[in-house]
Design brief:
heterodimer, A: alpha+beta, Alpha-Beta Plaits, three-stranded antiparallel sheet, 4 strands, 20% strand, B: alpha+beta, 17% strand, elongated
Chain lengths: 157, 180
């Protein structure tokens, strides 16, 4: 069953552009974080309340993932270190326990959720999509085969 | 990439935060609240969260200019327009239950003002990644159903007799027709 992670961390003053540049330089860090269904990273600036001056910039890291949060946060911290380095109090990616502690202190809890396939893991979804493609391809190839040839095609599958 | 991400930040007053928190607790007890939203079948993930304090960590001084907010993160198939239109047409009551008290929310009845509200309150997603980028929500649901059908048919497909195998294969294809 997938679970959400939402981390909202204030950026150090004047580092919003640096954080955006670091995000733009990312390749596919979440592909290397096991169990990630989907993820986003963005610089967020809340609108200011009236007569209260300017708001700060924040980094939002949000994802839906399988399994426990701690290993996911440690792996994501390692992969996103160039971006997270712009956040206030970022402990560095060297110590996974510190990364997890840092992220947990900045976590926002999702209160209400709608999930398309809530009970399937990334692996199950990937396997099911691959199977769907293979069955469709085999069905298209074997429409005119007799029973023995069909079975042979299946065994060669 | 089929799925599109959207991040919407809605300032809300304290009393609406109380209401929202209450309704989320109630909705956790029954699937009736989320069922019509899931039935829209183009939502991969949609998450709502309350941000009572900016920043959330107490180590950092409070950002007094930042308002109490409701954060909405979603990823969906199709265009923004289709997404908003579906929400407005299909689940206006639920949208009202979430946003009626949000500052500046125009009510869910008319598409134009809702679209404008979303545009005004959405924040660009700088980086978005998905493990199955070419699959729509519907494709994922169909593939999972097909996997279950296949798992059930698998012992029959192991038959040595070609006729028995072919009968099982054709039965599987008939059952799975709508899923391919």
């Amino acid at each position: 069953m997938s679970a959400p992670i939402l981390v909202l961390a204030p950026l150090r003053d004047g580092e919003a552009d640096g954080a955006r540049a670091a995000i733009a330089a990312l390749d596919e860090p979440f592909a290397r974080v096991p169990g990630t269904h989907l993820a986003r990273v963005q610089v967020l600036r809340p609108p200011p309340r009236r007569f209260r001056g300017r708001t700060r910039h924040y980094l939002l890291l949000a994802a839906d993932h399988d399994g426990p949060a701690e290993p996911w946060l440690a792996a994501a911290g390692r992969e996103l270190a160039p971006v997270l380095a712009h956040c206030a109090f970022w402990p560095g990616a060297d110590n996974p326990a510190e990364v997890v502690r840092w992220a947990r202190a900045r976590e926002v809890h999702a209160g209400f959720s709608v999930v398309g396939s809530p009970h399937a893991s990334v692996e199950e979804v990937g396997d099911a999509l691959a199977l769907r493609e293979r069955i469709a391809a085999l069905a298209a190839q074997t429409t005119v085969l007799d029973d023995a040839a069909l079975q042979a095609a299946w065994r060669a599958w | 990439m089929r799925a599109k991400p959207l991040t919407i930040l809605s300032p809300i007053p304290w009393w609406w935060a109380v209401w929202v928190r209450f309704t989320w607790r109630v909705s956790a007890l029954t699937s009736r609240v989320t069922a019509p939203l899931r039935a829209l079948s183009f939502i991969h993930f949609a998450r709502w969260a309350l941000i009572q304090r900016w920043p959330t960590d107490r180590q950092t001084p409070r950002d007094r200019a930042a308002p109490r907010s409701m954060l909405f993160l979603t990823s969906f198939d199709g265009s923004d327009i289709q997404y908003i239109e579906a929400f407005v047409r299909v689940v206006p009551t639920r949208i009202n239950g979430l946003y009626w008290g949000a500052k500046g929310f125009p009510g869910p009845k008319r598409f134009g003002p809702v679209a404008q509200y979303i545009e005004d309150h959405s924040h660009p997603v700088d980086h978005f990644w998905m493990a199955y980028p070419e699959a729509s929500t519907k494709m994922v649901a169909q593939a999972l159903k097909l996997q279950a059908l296949y798992d059930r048919a698998r012992p029959g497909l192991a038959a040595d007799d070609p006729q028995r195998f072919a009968a099982q294969w054709r039965r599987l294809l008939t059952d799975a027709q709508a899923l391919l």
